[in-house]
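Human: Not sure, check this?
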Amino acid sequence: MEKIGILMLKTFFPRIIGDIGNLDTFEFPVKRVIVNNATSKNVVKTSDNNLIDDFIREAKQLETEGVKAITTSCGFLARFQNEIVKHLSIPFFSSSLLLIPLIQEMIGDKTIAILTVRKQTLSEECFSSIKRPFNAVVYGMEGTHFSDIYVDNHTDLDVDEARDDIFKVIDKLLEENTNIGAILFECTNMAPFSQDVITKYQLPVFDICSLVRMMNNVI
């Protein structure tokens, strides 16, 4: 029986092992459902708040089917956290961004580096459910192969190039910020590269899949 339900965007890009949408990512069963009206374009690019009813409907259905907690396949859905959780009697964790207060407690006065697929639309609304204060810098993947794949929904993923894109952004943020204590991937599609980043930079890296594993262990 699946304990975790995942609300998925309707996408066509490849989902490699480590991605929340890959069938072999987790060591335990999960139940995925596609929210058909939700795409990378209207969730990440245009932030369409009219999608809220679709997510509430599918979340309630997952609860009816017996899952014990629900998450999503896009960190930008943090902006729906407060509304969706009102309609459920089980835990709902929309995004890895919900980890921010915990990470801040663990690293003290150091800074959290948040990597997002698209900084220009990761609005204050996406942080509305996050308890303040926290100390963070946000860096985006605009203008990269990674962005072409996961925002523009292309299918020609080059895994090495996508990894290098992430490395280049992290190199830049570490050059510009000397007090980074942890890295947080907003984008669920960055999770396949978490271990590479941990190994290269010797910093803790948090992503949606680590949060899913934690929740699966406590429900």
Observations:
- The radius of gyration is 16 Å.
- Helices lie at 40-45, 52-64, 81-86, 100-107, 145-150, 159-176, 194-201, 208-218.
